[in-house]
Amino acid sequence: MLNSHTSPSQMMIPAFLVLLACELAGDMLHQMFALPVPGPVIGMSILAAALVFRREEPTAKSVITDSLERTAESLIRHMGLLFVPAGVGLIAEVAVLRSEWLPIAAGLIGSTLLSLAVTGLVMHWSIRRRTAGRSPDTVRGLETS
Amino acid sequence: MVAIEHLWSSLGATPMFWLAVTLAAYELGNTLQRACGGSTFASPVLTAIILVASIVGMTGTDYRVYFAATQLINFLLGPATVALAVPLARSARLVKENLLGVGLALLAGSVTSILSGIGLVWLFGGSRAVALSMAPKAATTPVAAAVSSQIGGIPALTAALAIVGGILAAVVGQKMLAKMNILDWRAHGLAAGVAGSGIAAAQVAARNELGAAFAAVGIGLNGALIGLVVSVVAQLWK
User: Is residue A32 part of a domain?
Assistant: First the structure.
C-alpha cells in the first residue's frame, strides 16, 4: 500500500512514465524493424511480458505496480471518450457510407456473428475434450432467457 | 447576428471549445445510458460521436480543425492501449491453464473475423479501402484504428465499425451461443472478447467473473494477433 510520504496523485507520474516508455519502445521497434504491428500494440506486449515475468517472483506488490494498476484502470474505464475524436472523422467519410452501405452492413454483421460462433464453438469443444463431459461452471438460466 | 459571428470566429478557433464539447457530449452519453437502465444500445461513445459530428457539421467546421483541437484526447489512446497489458497480465494464469483451447479458439475466431469481413465486403461489391477498414474491426477500437491506418483502410470507419460491431456482439452474443448449446462461461467470455472486444466483454463481465477474465484474455491477445494477421493479409492482397 501507499505510505504516508506519497500521495496517490504523485504516484500517477511514474505510472504514466512506464506507459509512455513502453509506447515509445514499441514505436521505435516498429520503425527500426518495419514491424507490421502498430507501436502501442508492441508496447502493450512488452509491458504484459514484463508484468507476467515480475509476478513469478513471490515478492510483495511494489508501489509502482500498485500505481500502474490504478492508472491503467482509470485509463481503460474512460477509454470510450478517447475514441470520440477519431470516430467523429466519420463525417469526412459520408460519401463512402452512402455508396457502400450494403457491403459495410453485410461485412459487419456477417463477420461479427461468424467470429462469435467460431470462437465459442472451438473453445467449447476444447473444454469438453479436456474435462470429458464434466462442466464445472456453466451459463445457467440462459436457455430460458 | 454580426456579434454572434464574431463570437463564433474566436470561440471556434480555440481548442478549449472543442475539448469542452467532446467531454460534454460524452457525459451526456453516459447520462443517457444510465437513463436507459444501462442498455448496450445506448453506448455513450456512439452518442458522443453522433452529437459531436452533428455540431461539427452544423457549424461548418473542417474535421481537421476539430481533430487538431482534440489532439490531447486522441493522444491518450496510445498509453491507454499499452495499459491493456495490466488486465492481460492478470489473466496470464488462465491462459496457461487453458493454453491449447484459448490458442485454437482465438486463432480460429480471429482469422474467421478478418477473412469473412474482407470476403463479405468484396462479395457485395465494396471497395478495397472498405474491405481493409473491415478487416481489423474486431480488435479493441484503438488497435483496430491504428492497424487500419497502417494498411490503407479508413481509421474513422474502422473505429465506428469496431464500436457498432461490439454493440451487435453484446446484444446477440449470449443468446446465439446458448442456442448453439454452448453454455460454458469461458467460451462465452472468450467469444465476446474476440468478436466484440470491450463493449461485448462488458456485457459478459457484468454476469460472471470467470467470463470476464476470459473476455479480457480475448481482447488482449486478439489485439496483438489481429495486428499481425491483418498486416500479412494486406501485404498478400495488393
Answer: yes
Same domain for A95 and A43? Answer: no
Say how far apart CA A96 and CA B89 lie, in whole Å: 39
Alpha-carbon gap, residue B53 to B63, rounded angstroms:
9
Range of the domain at A129: 86-136
Give pLDDT tens digits for B205-227: 777 878 888 888 888 888 888 88
Q: Are B134 and B151 in contact (CB under 8 A)?
A: no
Phi first, then psi, for residue B184 (nearest 5°) are -85, 135
Distance CA B20, CA B165 (A): 28
Instruction: Enter the pTM of the model.
Output: 0.79
- Show which of B24, B57, B76 is a domain's final residue: B76
pLDDT per residue as tens digits for the range B147-184: 898 888 998 899 889 988 988 888 888 889 999 998 88
**Which residues in chain A are closer than 8 Å to B208, comparing Cβ atoms?**
137, 139
B92 and B128 together in one domain: yes
pLDDT in tens, B48-68: 989 999 999 998 888 989 999
Q: Which of A16, A41, A46, A138 to mutate to test the interface with B (most CBs of B within 10 A)?
A: A41
Nearest-angstrom CA–CA distance, A38 and B84: 14
Domain that holds residue B119: 84-236
Query: Do residues A115 and A65 share a domain?
Result: no
Q: Which string of DSSP letters, residue by residue, matches A62-81?
A: PHHHHHHHHHHHHHHHTHHH
User: Looking at beta carbons, which residues of chain A come within 8 Å of B194?
Assistant: 115-116, 119
Backbone angles phi, psi at A138, to 5 degrees: -110, 165
